[in-house]
Amino acid sequence: MSGEEEYSFDLSTIKKKPIEYNGYFEFRPTLSVLNKDSRTYFLSFYDVDEGTVINEYNFNLFLNLTYKKGFFSIVTTSNLIFTNTFSGWGNKISFYQAFLSLKPSNSLSFNLGKVRLKWGKGYAWNPVAFADRPKDPNDPELAMEGFVVFSFDYIKSFNGILKTISISPVILPVNESINTEFGSQSKLIFGGKIYFLLGDTDIDIMFLSGKDFDDRFGIDFSRNISSGIEVHGELSYISDLEQNEKISYLAGTRFLTRSDITFIFEYYKNGRGLSSEDTAEYYLKIDEAYQIYLHTGDATTLQLLKESTDTVFRSFASMSDYLYLRVSQKEPFDILYFTLSITSIYNLVDHSCSITPEIIYTPVTNLELRGKISFFSGVSGSDFGEKKNSLRLEFRGRFYF
Amino acid sequence: MSKKIFVSIVLLVSLVSFVVGQDSEADKLLLKVDRNLNPESYESYKKLINIEPSGRKKEFVLFTVKKGKDKVAALFISPASEKGRSTLRMEENMWLYIPNIGKPVRITSLQSVVGGIFNNADILRLDYAEEYFVKKSEEDKGMIVLYLKAKKKSVAYDQLKMWVDKKNTLPVKIECMTQTSMLIKTIHYKQVKNFGKGIKRPSVIETVSPLHKGYKSVMIFAGIKSRKFKDEVFSLSFMPNLDTLR
To answer: Domain B33-245, what fold?
Structure first.
């Protein structure tokens, strides 16, 4: 290309339209090598002989659809997934978000419907995300489902050390069919978040409170301490829990070296996390239930334990102390649009861990290819030693439109 | 003896006045460069093109708004994989909002949200006079060369060497260097265009780097307009709503 090349930029190609959509098609096959000695394996496959290796094929359509007219808009985010596993085909459609939004001014907005609130500054975990579903630290950037809320945001800027304040009250209705994660009895849960940009530091204070509900309070912060280093933290307090369970916190940093390597490091103290004794007792119950099943064919206890395991372990941090480290390098060896990374989650209580190397490549615009392999290591009875897989290989191809 | 002291004081005062006067003129020139590049508060569209040695290109289109000396925000309009992302800068604080993640996260000036040679500080650039002072200036082949030094350590490039066209007071070339004077990248300002309402500036910025030999990044400007914004537009809560300004 010559240095005198004329460049053009036609603005008519990017004209705004009232109805806009975007999203992606995804193909995500996985291969899992099963850990046949683990308790979670017993729970999942006690009555099925599926071999040592299982494959899964996922086809996703993720769609954002927005209609805007003046200060009124309707926003929907949906996900349609078709899955093929050893047990056959399945499909599911989920509305992650569906809400009406009114923005009468740049300072004020109202939302009504299913919305993601996304509180907290942590990368892998968010102990202050009281009104969000737990995220997977192995894939923290994955889109998640919101809750049905009425909320509004009021923003005010100032000249001085307090630069911005943003007030975001929220009301969550709960009944047998809405927001059941917060209970099944009809009630209203009130909460809110106040954000301050104080000097060069982001600070949030949040709470959630309601009838027959453990009141919860939180605070988080984040700031850049140099052109390449960011630090952040979160602290949450939940009333009506045992004294040693009330407080959870997270401290973390993200820094970029001159050679363009990014480190994300976090420590998470989960106040409600299980101790080694708790998990040992729990695994003993699974052993006993499995023995009953082998001798009598009665799987009732195993089924009950499976359901409680899904609840307890859905938080992706079932125990009390974790470290998270992610090291990634963008464009190593001068290969553009190529990112190499490795992520490790280490359980400080039982010294088990997961290690996940990953590559992401975008060979052409709007096509992203990702490959990752997760290894789980730990002795019997440990957090990662009891995962149903000992190894999981995943490929993800996404085409954005 | 007293005559010698008097002469020395007069000489010293003259020298200081000369140096201060020169610096002041050079600083005024830098302010004029900033104002000629864009109004203090404005909106514009930018197309970023990363070009690989093979000629393969990757393009991004952004809608950018700026207010005063230290507030800039940008919304990604294309490609589809980036659509809806927005970035915000207030002084040296920077954030990135990704719709799927659903909340702004802090980023640093040395990172790059688009890959290629442009980093975040290049994309969300503040006025040069906001981040740099003029260390010295000199004339070179009909141009004025300004030697700029960062006011804070947190600024992405510690030193700049800026060639300014005397005729239209616009930059022609800028070399970006580290504290140890190592060249990181060279920026070429090209294709001066009249955007209307008194805005006449280069419409293309080309960047090359000795650290990425053979690669080139280009920024093309369109639709630059002077526009007033409320301060609240430049806040984390407004990042998902930047599209409402278009």
So the answer is: outer membrane lipoprotein receptor (LolB), chain A (2.50.20)
